[in-house]
Write a structure and sequence with these properties.
Largest sheet: 6 strands, mixed
Radius of gyration: 28 Å
Structural class: alpha/beta
Shape: elongated
Amino acid sequence: MSRRTPGAIRSGEGRTPNSNEELSAAAQVKQAARHSPRMIATRGGAERAFLIGVEYRRRRDAKPHSVGEQAQLAAQARRSASTAAEGTPGEQPAGHLTPEELLAELHELALSAGAEVVGEFVQRRDRPDPATLIGRGKLEELSGAVASSGAAVVLFDHELTPSQQRNIEAAVGARVIDRTQLILDIFARHARTREGQLQVELAQLEYLLPRLAGRGVEMSQLGGGIGTRGPGETQLETDRRKIYRRIRDVKQQLEAVRRTRAQQRQRRETAPIATVALVGYTNAGKSTLFNALTEAGVLESSKMFATLDPTIRALTLPSRRKVLLSDTVGFIRQLPHALVSAFRATLEEVQRASLILHVSDATNAAVREQDEQVEQVLHELEADNTPRLRVLNKIDLLNTDERAKLRATADSACVSARTGEGLEALIALIDAMIQVDPVSRVRLRVPQNEGKLLALLEAKARILSRRYKAGSAILEIEAPESVLRQVRKAELAFSETRGNSPAAVAGRSGSHKR
């Protein structure tokens, strides 16, 4: 007996070329995650999409009722007050993005998913409608707009409940996708490694589970024999059981991935090498900056979430120390919690980092609000106490007056990853803030027949002065603690001067090779 595909599958995942209506919900999601789901794009090219933004008006005399809402507003006020002195050209107060700016971000997400945007509008209401979110009158207007534009999918910049999604679909006669489902689709498109595909599949399954729509008793499965007569197990219950089983299997596989990463990290931590994690809002230029620092050649794209799988490369600092630079997935406003949980194995690199480079787009008017979204995700990852270095990127796109407003501080840098401007100062700041394997200045007397030791010092230390006397080389160097330990093993007499910061070392280093 044939049956309909569950509502969430029908409205979200679509059908793969080889799927049929007999596939279970779990099998469809599993197949979609493995074969790049086509939630937006179709065989005939980009699918026509209509965008909907929602703004809730608040009266001036209205007061927050819930304790959580009061706490949220108080925290926002504290953040705004603490960042009032920090200026970025064109930025506006956090949390005050206009509906048009929010819709512009949804437009970029739709393009990243392969859609062709044919129309958009913003609905302003005092409160959300429980049945349709936007209200019955606006829903009728949306139905006419979708029919006239020929849109096949409607994208909401808001999370929809399962009942709202079904009601809107029935009224407009087109598939309805909310913001969370759209982001999941983009992640699934860009997942290339097995680890990334598993993480996306887990997030998709957890999103799908409460959105299953069965057919009730008419889809029941009856057993045979005495005592088995009755409604039996409905197809909805069967689908849920299969999804729960698949979620358990995926979590077990991800746990194996997490153990493997922990072992790799443990081997790295045996050597005195710090880890620096690049984080930031999506499309802030993290991958471009990563390539400029390490020449890694990772994908650079203006599309959101173009880089999903993590990449780690070594970077040599002016003090001759090496650090591991990690490029992570970009964050976004209202990042689905399921994604943060599913990508915890990848984001553990951020949790264990010695230093976090918070990359911001200096040209974006909403940069402060974007920075707060990044800070919220870092708080969720319990990385609040990790040292931060803020990097204002894309300064090559600012005019002279806007550049004059930028203020580089001891924990911030202004750079252009595209042109290379400011990268030397950025690397010097990284060197100054890294506390792993500290640098000291020492004076050595090394016999000239100690060629191996002299070669070590040439490669891993900065030689400030050199002179020769009685068959020995008298050197004044600045070297990491790991190098000085090897010098001590050679039982050479040397005097050591403490207190020279890596910043001073970097400031005298001039050019260096990355």
